[in-house]
Amino acid sequence: MSELATLRADFARHYGHLPAWIARAPGRVNLIGEHTDYNQGFVLPMAIEREVLLAAAPNGSRQIRLRSTAIAGPATVELSQPVERTTHGHWSNYPRGVIAGFIERNVALIGLDLLVDSTVPLGGGLSSSAALEVATATLLEAVAQQRLEPLEKVRLCQEAEQRFAGVPCGIMDPFVVTLARRDHLTLLDCRSHLAQEIEFSDPEVAVLIAGTNVKHSLAHSEYPLRRRQCESAAQKLQLPSLRALAAGDLASAAHQLDAQSLKRVRHVVTEIDRTQQAAAAIAARRWSEAGRLMYLSHDSLRYDFEVSAPELDAIVEIARATGEEGGVFGARMTGGGFGGCAVLLVRTAAVTSITGRICAQYSQQFAVTPTLFVSRPAAGAGMVHR
User: Fold this and answer.
1) Alpha-carbon distance 276 to 92, whole Å?
2) Is the pLDDT score of 386 beyond 60?
3) CA–CA separation, 292 and 269 (whole Å)
């Protein structure tokens, strides 16, 4: 049975009728440009071939009923009263925030039965939350027959995560999940919100995603702390954001910052430069250069921004030891850090040997099996037409 057929059958089992609409939104992986989005810098993500599917049908009520195939605990949103977030950490806060955003924009909504199914790994730094938010927004657009302006849709989903999930996220995730183009990376300027599509269609080169299958407890507290540290440093330097500081000005900025702040600033400023260089290298198919920049990015995240983890470092070190002769151009941690995933730029022909090597060595070191899969750059969100 196909994934869509299974979803329809599950929907009918839960609600007693078939869905009228199905929306999809992909996860994403960021090749380079980490912790730069909320500093108004550059990022270089792509949508992946793992996605959230959201099936829906009208239920004749003033309620939106939510279920997930993977997570127990249905939820209900009352449309006849203001939408509030529920228990902290509950998965329904992501669609709740989107529903609230539509209501605040005076989009008329009807009662719906919703069922979520996802192949995006949860908590792995592959933006399962943005995929759920954007899938919800895409579905509500179709139901209401009212399309939002694309950047407004992106901002609505960003606001949903900030307000209802309490995550001070940047614009990167909802942007690429909404607007990605197949076989292209997105070089996004997080200050101007202008994007450049970078072709990535060489069949001989692939993106390999390696999930550590660990999440350290620091992840929840350190991400907002890093953001505050960056904002504080920008204020000390009297800058609107760290994007305004050039790499050549780091030495003079050092006199105004404590040692820790300088490390945070150095990562952001050098990462913004690396991201632009990597985009140019990939566009020109200079894979060795792109890989070198990925390794530099990981080292900066590990030592200056201090958001890596032993499991991420181990995967990157296995990649380094494999080297170009073994088919690996470069590797780095991706996402907020403290677990989650690493991303590798590899030769397609060597994927099997590389995944075997990582799996064997990582499992031996940590007694945990990593999750490994290859993805081509996928298309952004849309409706699934039967």
Assistant:
1) 36
2) no
3) 17
- C-alpha to C-alpha distance for 61 and 84, rounded to whole angstroms: 19
What positions carry a catalytic annotation?
173
Distance CA 50, CA 128 (A): 9
pLDDT of residue 378 exceeding 80: yes
Task: For residue 256, give every residue at least 6 positions away whose Cβ sits within 8 Å of its Cβ, in sequence order, or none.
Answer: 236, 237
Phi, psi of 40 (to 5 degrees): 65, 30
The domains located in the chain, with CATH, are 3-198+379-383 (3.30.230.10), 200-375 (3.30.70.890)
Single-letter residue type at 231:
E
Q: What is the 3-state secondary structure (H, E, C) of 21-53?
A: EEEEEEEEEEEECCCCHHHCCEEEEEEEEEEEE
In this predicted structure, the answer to whether residue 112 has a pLDDT above a threshold of 90 is yes
Q: pTM of the prediction?
A: 0.93
In a 13 Å sphere around the CA of 237, the CA atoms on its Cβ side amount to 26
Distance CA 66, CA 62 (A): 13
Q: Look at strands 328-334 and 184-189 and give their pairing.
A: unpaired
Contact 158, 174 (CB under 8 A): yes
Amino acid symbol at 217: S
**E strand or H helix at 211:** strand 205-215
Q: ∠ CA 184-309-333 to the nearest 5 degrees?
A: 10
Q: State the DSSP string of 271-335.
A: HHHHHHHHHHHHHTT-HHHHHHHHHHHHHHHHHTS----HHHHHHHHHHHHHTGGGTEEEEEEES
CA distance 154 to 170: 11
CA 314 from chain centre, in angstroms, equals 22
Cβ-contact 171, 190 below 8 angstroms: yes
Given this model, what pLDDT does residue 217 score?
A: 67
Q: Which residues neighbour 317 within 8 Å (Cβ) at sequence distance 6 or greater? A: none
Alpha helix positions (H), the chain: 3-15, 93-104, 128-144, 150-160, 172-179, 218-236, 250-253, 259-283, 287-303, 310-322, 351-366
Phi-psi region of 145 (alpha: psi -120 to 50; beta: other; left: phi over 0): left
Q: Kindly state the tokens that stand for 375.
A: 């993805």
